[in-house]
Amino acid sequence: MNSIFISIGSNLGDKIDNCKTAIEEIAAFAKIVKVSSYYETEPVGKEDQPNFINCAAEICTDLSANDLLTKLNKIEDKLGRVRNEKWGPRTIDLDIIFYGDLILNDEDLIIPHPRAHLRGFVLKPICEIDPEFIHPEYNLSIYELLKEIKDEKKVIKLN
Questions:
Q1: CATH code of the domain in which 66 resides
Q2: SS3 at position 66
Q3: Does 2 score more than 90 pLDDT?
């Protein structure tokens, strides 16, 4: 089975509950290995919107990366995600960040996520789960990437 890291975020409605529900939905078809703490984070890209709650989950599944993406998109739809503006507010956002050491560049899916190494809201939760995981393209651990990050956005761990 592949070890996969999913970034989970929400900035509409009950944000923590949206993240928890998404994790429960993922658990219906994949083994949840570990889930990070929740973090309050400032929006990236489109800044005039509510802050996010973000976390990360490490999962294991035999699904292909593309089949996993299809299932994650169905969860987003089920939880009311509307895709009407890039980087706009959303009830839930589920991104495949790493899929083992797979490097994939398809029309619909890029793994590792192309901006993961630039974003504290992605790296901090994954670092909490597995700081020694090696980014397959940069050959650096999550911890090392996090130390080098230039992201000025606040990423605050919740109690």
A1: 3.30.70.560
A2: helix
A3: no
